[in-house]
Design goal:
Radius of gyration: 18 Å
Oligomer: single chain
Shape: elongated
Strand content: 15-25%
InterPro entries: CheY-like_superfamily, OmpR/PhoB-type_DNA-bd, Sig_transdc_resp-reg_C-effctor, Sig_transdc_resp-reg_receiver, WalR-like, WH-like_DNA-bd_sf
Distance between the termini: 35 Å
Strand order of the largest sheet: 2-1-3-4-5
Helix content: 40-55%
Number of strands: 11
Pfam family, one: Trans_reg_C
Order of helices and strands: EHEHEHEHEHEEEEHHHEE
Keywords: DNA-binding, Phosphoprotein
Protein name: Response regulator transcription factor
């Protein structure tokens, strides 16, 4: 999953980015509303964390512009304002959730996980596809109850596919959503990670759809008898 953090406090921005990266996300960052609005308009993020009190262009204006253009990316607003009217203004502009400063980083991470789950149509922190289970809260993966150790990139790839089970995902889409803008994006590496995942999972749930991409299909996995 690829996220954007728009926060003008450099220290807080760095803290949020670091926490998200440690949680397994690819993260881009912007320090003002103008840059944040541009990135949100030109990059395919899975969720955005947006401060309201931004220089150049304020957060509500940025969010309003995104929604006016039909961009449906989930947005969590950060605000130092605790008046109910400011929160209402954020929701009316199109926010999906909000966090009031100061906050505990674990709360923000939990809200990000919940927002990503809801946007993909999942109700709990544990996502299943046949015998494969992925816990978004702990970052653990298991097959038939047996833990599987994955690298950070393998986990990101599996997580994205499992959040979009039943839909064909192209290599280009995977590349755009798994790496931040500074990463040297080579879509050929996706094939390498897919091969590694298939070996580690040991079940045939990742299907290659020739010319289109990959499909996570639980019906292809063997069932226990």
């Amino acid at each position: 999953m690829r996220l954007l953090v728009v926060e003008d406090d450099r220290t807080l921005n760095k803290q949020i980015v670091t926490a998200l990266e440690q949680a397994g996300y690819a993260v881009d960052a912007a320090m003002d509303g103008e840059e944040g609005q541009f990135l949100g308009e030109t990059e395919p993020y899975d969720a955005i964390i947006l401060d309201l009190g931004l220089p150049k262009v304020d957060g509500v204006t940025v969010l309003t512009a995104w929604r006016r253009e039909g961009r449906k990316v989930p947005v969590i607003i950060l605000t130092a304002r605790d008046r109910w009217s400011d929160k209402v203004q954020g929701f009316d502009a199109g926010a999906d959730d909000y966090v009031t400063k100061p906050f505990h980083m674990e709360e923000l991470l939990a809200r990000v996980r919940a927002l990503l789950r809801r946007s993909a149509g999942h109700a709990t922190s544990e996502i299943s596809c046949g015998p494969v289970k992925l816990d978004t809260r702990s970052g653990r993966v298991a097959v038939d109850g047996n833990p599987v150790k994955l690298t950070s990139h393998e986990y990101r790839l599996l997580s994205y596919l499992m959040h979009h089970t039943g839909r064909i995902v192209s290599r280009g889409e995977l590349t755009e959503h798994l790496y931040d803008q500074d990463f040297d994006r080579d879509s050929n590496t996706i094939e390498v990670f897919i091969g590694r995942l298939r070996k580690k999972l040991g079940v045939d749930i990742i299907q290659t759809v020739r010319g289109l991409g990959y499909l996570l299909d639980a019906s292809q996995a063997p069932t226990k008898t």
